[in-house]
Design brief:
There is one protein chain. The chain has 126 residues and is mainly β. Helices cover 0% and strands 47% of the residues. Strands 2, 4, 5, 6, 9, 10 and 11 form a 7-stranded mixed β-sheet that branches. A 4-stranded antiparallel β-sheet has the order 1-3-8-7, with no helix packed on it.
Length: 126
């Protein structure tokens, strides 16, 4: 059974930093796109960042570009999200996700992703 589990969320002051991790089990993710999405109260699910499995190419939402960095490491913790200089508007539940098929492109559309974690809450205080 495929499972994605996020960790690292919490309360952070604006201008600080926080690193989110996503641990995977149930299959290998090393050749699959991994993405981060967020969901704030009263808003829809929003794309944050994605990284491909082959080249490691990345894609970011305009709202986080230059502040957040997505990386991937080994197969047990396939993706990290380094959040630098967070803003109060970054407050949300952050979830990692991956499509079922490997070798895909770094999409920003939630229906392109098949597996989702439960999410970790990030709260940015002003």
């Amino acid at each position: 059974q495929v499972q994605l589990v996020e960790s690292g969320g919490g309360l952070v002051q604006a201008g600080g930093s926080l690193r989110l991790s996503c641990a995977a089990s149930g299959r290998t993710f090393i050749m699959h796109v991994m993405g981060w999405f967020r969901h704030a109260p009263g808003k829809g699910r929003e794309f944050v960042a994605a990284i491909s499995g082959r080249s490691g190419s990345t894609r970011y939402a305009d709202s986080v570009n230059g502040r957040f960095t997505i990386t991937r490491d080994n197969d047990k913790n396939p993706v990290y999200l380094q959040m630098n200089s967070p803003k109060p508007e970054d407050t949300a539940v952050y979830s990692c996700a991956s499509p079922r098929s490997p070798f895909g492109n770094t999409g920003d559309n939630p229906p392109d992703y098949d597996y989702w974690g439960q999410g970790t809450q990030v709260t940015v205080s002003s």
